[in-house]
């Protein structure tokens, strides 16, 4: 492992890797390699300390009990919070997104404290689960193309004043608050309800994480024809009446 | 308790007759085998019918995420050494389909019943089984199914205090958690390649330690039970330490595991392992799975894999490169509509095979394989994919509705 290597940390695959979350790590790794970047992937199990020297942290989705266990262990460990304080890039999905907020409802129906790295609070929806394809527009400031993904959650996430919505949905529920927002971000910490996995359906988001990590404005181009074909198909399918 | 000692009540008989009539109408209308509609009609007329039909049988239930249809077939084959068997061999595994299957076997001694995971506890309550075989639990269709660990928890509650002998896989921690509330368990070391749904202890949530084939929780002491039966390579080891060779026409490690469980179930009913294993050889294909069909001058082997654990087991049984492989994936209702699970499958195992992609969601597969660094060809149809492959054996791996599409097209 060289000192120049980009350190990609996948947080708690033993607890938070339920909906193909490994895909996000694989896509970041692949797109870094295609740019001839040296990447070290570090998978951190929940009985291991989270390193504080990572560049990009990925945290995925999970079932209700593993989510509570993950929150307990991340709070106790403190590594991810210290990394965030150092300006690390964190990209979180679904259960992981809720954990980054101030609190969420755990499997016992109780309010569980999160890490407070995003100014959001999650509750549990009373209605039907939000399940299905999603289409949205990512926040203008990020300069990214349309968001496509698949959501499957019962959670509702309310954004506080220092969190910006990551996207606005055209189709799907997103944060479930009824205001059309999807996900949240603040500086280099991101949260989304999108599976798919989201970085496979939106490789430009993976590139954004790499650009933030490298502190560059652009990356060499890659052959994205299969991503583009998949995106076109999913976007067309989402906009077609069923 | 076996045999037809008590006749069915007039109401139950009426329900069976009405169910058969509805099934016949459904078949005549070209709407499938009619087993589910027949069972629904019969159950509406007599809600206790399932229990009543089962009273006359020694019932064996089989449930799992993967392998339940095949294992049901193997057990049915093995138990025929001891008496006539009725079984839901076509995989209609919810209460209506089960009722319909049992109604068709008035002379049977044994009822060998595949049960959908969600219905196991309820069916076990209704039919008072003599034995229950539990093979494995892993992630499957998470957009519509219960969480995997919750399923194990429900089994555990539903099977607590059951009179049945539970024959369970000691190598799957979720199965062990589900089965260990039962008073009588026969543990079988049947193996489980897929481990990613059981890294946290089902009992206390601690991180499971998994050195080689063992597993245990360092925090609460929940651990792999000592098995009395085991799969060891190509042999089944029985509780006396004798090794019985497995000869199957069905390929792969997973089917050897299914055979080991079947041998343990058969022994519960007095059928010796040697007899059970000899009878299992007769099973060649199960509802089209593993069938080799001639299509456009090639030998197409049809393999069904519905979830990451199933794909993993399937990769281990296919012929080595340069045998061409066709992958087919749909995401219709019966498949689960979320394709994220493709990213839990290690496709690098296919390196060296020429690969063709078909199915509604071939572009999801294309991105998956691109990221895995594999070469592939995207095709519009199975015809095109077969034409693009060299003559000889082709391995075709498909998920549920994609498999049915292919079967229809290749005339199997």
TrEMBL record, chain A:
InterPro entries on file: Class_I_gatase-like, CobQ_GATase1, GATase_3, Lipid_II_synth_GatD
What keywords tag this UniProt record?
Cell shape, Cell wall biogenesis/degradation, Glutamine amidotransferase, Hydrolase, Ligase, Peptidoglycan synthesis
Keyword Hydrolase (UniProt):
yes
Q: Tell me its EC number(s), please.
A: 6.3.5.13, 3.5.1.2
Q: Pathway it acts in?
A: Cell wall biogenesis; peptidoglycan biosynthesis
Keyword Cell inner membrane assigned to the entry: answer is no
A GO molecular function assigned to this protein is: glutaminase activity
Q: Which residues form the CobB/CobQ-like glutamine amidotransferase domain?
A: 9-202
Q: Which Pfam families match?
A: GATase_3
Q: Quaternary state and partners of this protein?
A: Forms a heterodimer with MurT.
Which family does the UniProt entry place this protein in?
Belongs to the CobB/CobQ family. GatD subfamily.
Q: What does this protein do?
A: The lipid II isoglutaminyl synthase complex catalyzes the formation of alpha-D-isoglutamine in the cell wall lipid II stem peptide. The GatD subunit catalyzes the hydrolysis of glutamine to glutamate and ammonia. The resulting ammonia molecule is channeled to the active site of MurT.
Name listed for the protein in its UniProt record: Lipid II isoglutaminyl synthase (glutamine-hydrolyzing) subunit GatD
Its source organism is Streptomyces beijiangensis
Lineage summary: Bacteria, Bacillati, Actinomycetota, Actinomycetes, Kitasatosporales
**Gene from which the chain derives:** gatD
Automatic annotation (TrEMBL), chain B:
Q: Is the keyword tRNA processing in the record?
A: no
Catalytic site residues? 338
- Residues binding Zn(2+) are 201, 204, 217, 220
Concerning InterPro entries, the annotation shows: Lipid_II_synth_MurT, Mur-like_cat_sf, Mur_ligase_cen, MurT_C
N-terminal signal peptide = none
Pathway(s) served: Cell wall biogenesis; peptidoglycan biosynthesis
Task: Fetch the HAMAP family from UniProt.
Answer: Lipid_II_synth_MurT
Tell me, in a sentence or two, what this protein's role is: The lipid II isoglutaminyl synthase complex catalyzes the formation of alpha-D-isoglutamine in the cell wall lipid II stem peptide. The MurT subunit catalyzes the ATP-dependent amidation of D-glutamate residue of lipid II, converting it to an isoglutamine residue.
PANTHER family from the entry? LIPID II ISOGLUTAMINYL SYNTHASE (GLUTAMINE-HYDROLYZING) SUBUNIT MURT (PTHR23135:SF7), MUR LIGASE FAMILY MEMBER (PTHR23135)
Name the UniProt record assigns to this protein? Lipid II isoglutaminyl synthase (glutamine-hydrolyzing) subunit MurT
Please tell me the species this chain comes from. Streptomyces beijiangensis
Whichever gene encodes this chain, its name is murT
